[in-house]
From TrEMBL:
It is found in: Cell membrane. PANTHER family: MEMBRANE TRANSPORTER PROTEIN YFCA-RELATED (PTHR30269:SF0), TRANSMEMBRANE PROTEIN YFCA (PTHR30269). Its main location: membrane. It comes from Streptomyces africanus. The keyword Transmembrane helix applies. Keywords: Cell membrane, Membrane, Transmembrane, Transmembrane helix, Transport. It holds the Pfam family TauE. This is Probable membrane transporter protein. The chain crosses the membrane at residues 31-53, 74-97, 103-121, 142-166, 186-203, 210-228, 234-253. Belongs to the 4-toluene sulfonate uptake permease (TSUP) (TC 2.A.102) family. The keyword Transport applies. InterPro entries: TM_pro_TauE-like, TSUP.
Amino acid sequence: MTPGEMAAVFAAGMGAGAVNAVVGSGTLITFPVLLATGLSPVTATVSNGLGLVPGSISAAIGYREELRGQRRRVLLLAIGAALGGLAGAVLLLTLPASAFERIVPVLVSLALVLVACQPLISRWVRRRRPAGGPARRDGGPLLFTGLTLASVYGGYFSAAQGIIYVSLMGVLLEDTLQRLNAVKNVLAAVVNTVAAVLFLFFADFDWTAVLLIAVGSALGGVIGARTGRRFSPAVLRTLIVSVGTVALVNLVLH
């Protein structure tokens, strides 16, 4: 990896860490950069997953105030996230690389649609939530099942998993979006960590890419948690969709 590529991977990791703390879908920033360095799609995904663990943890810590009073909810949903993340990571390691290369363009397309439609999803969630109603504690079996399935997706390919989490919780829980976003960060950290443990022992990855993204995402997670609410959602969304579109075109033409 050349010095220029290393700088690009570090910058992408920082951007992904900040974006994941606020919205999710930071993988759409790091993934195309890793592909541009010459890594295969599977190796890029594994390296990205390992590297983003510190960022997801720092983002969760940064939202600790919003996590107050949610211990029971977080512990319950984290069980489903761990199980789903493990299943997704196993699928990534056991399915042939050719299957991954066929599936990923579809997943990237889905992620881009979710990012682009996020304002519509958020408005729908706000309209559905009755003002002043009592908050549901855990969302019941439907939310647990939905978040577990979303975590399977996250363990396999993490782009926009945070948006799926917030959408599901917004529909099935009555709470503020900031508090739900805090839970999202914890669940993403659980999925990334569980998948990373498996990847360390059974997957091929690029240590240079992992370390660069790890340091960058850790810094980005802190920045995103502290100042991300000041960013324009429209600017972040445009950046993510633009970079993700380049990744999609690169994958299709690869």
